[in-house]
Specification:
By secondary structure, the chain is mainly alpha-helical. It has ten helices and four strands. A two-stranded parallel ribbon has the order 1-2. Helix 6 crosses helix 10. The relative contact order is 0.11.
């Protein structure tokens, strides 16, 4: 007998998506943020209207995804539930349309990743929340490289080594990925000294967002 909790068809996740579509996004955001008291003022900004439109479209897509995977939702592990819930909340604070698309993909990806363990769920939730669309683009473009180096001007004949010029947008993206734990020191061997590599969790991140 499975020890997974049985979830009702009308899940909390579907409820959150539905509530956001009917205008409770600001209230939910206020409950999750110390900036809550300022939100009534911000709703008068033109940017607030643009964000409302972005969220409406995004959550319509999320709701369709959840409805299309009703069987998977009933069998969610706690780790999947956490990751999907955190991703939905991250959408509230995202104004970049490309990042919203990635988050929508992450929700669908989470439904098909039952092998996620608790620590991975926590780490991936933080990454999905904080990573930018440009940083995600960098990961997808460059994951095949075994090593990366920033600020080195010498030429490399090894196609597995990516040389990134300091001061470029790619260098800025790589620095951000270091802060998120996606790029880590490559090691102490002669070949790896002073270089970076993608952390093991990057494989799971790509699996979540690449559709």
């Amino acid at each position: 007998m499975s020890d997974k909790p049985s979830l009702p068809k009308a899940t909390v996740l579907e409820g959150i998506a539905g509530n956001l579509l009917t205008g409770s996004a600001m209230a939910l955001a206020a409950s999750c943020s110390p900036m809550g008291p300022l939100l009534p003022v911000l709703t008068g900004a033109l940017a607030s209207g643009r964000q409302a439109e972005r969220l409406k479209g995004a959550f319509e897509t999320v709701q369709k995804t959840l409805q299309a995977h009703s069987d998977a939702i009933r069998e969610l592990t706690d780790e999947q539930y956490k990751l999907i819930n955190e991703t939905i909340l991250a959408m509230l604070h995202t104004t970049d349309p490309r990042k919203l698309e990635y988050l929508q993909q992450a929700i669908e990806g989470s439904l098909t990743c039952p092998e996620i363990v608790p620590l991975e769920s926590a780490v991936l939730s933080r990454i999905v929340r904080d990573i930018s669309a440009e940083e995600l683009d960098f990961v997808l473009r460059n994951f095949e490289h075994e090593l990366l180096a920033i600020g080195q001007c010498m030429q490399s004949k090894d196609e597995k080594v990516l040389l990134i010029e300091d001061g470029t947008r790619d260098a800025l993206a790589a620095t951000g990925l270091m802060g998120l734990g996606i790029l880590v020191p490559a090691g102490s061997t002669w070949k790896a000294t002073g270089k970076l590599r993608f952390a093991a969790v990057t494989v799971k991140l790509i699996a979540l967002i690449k559709r």
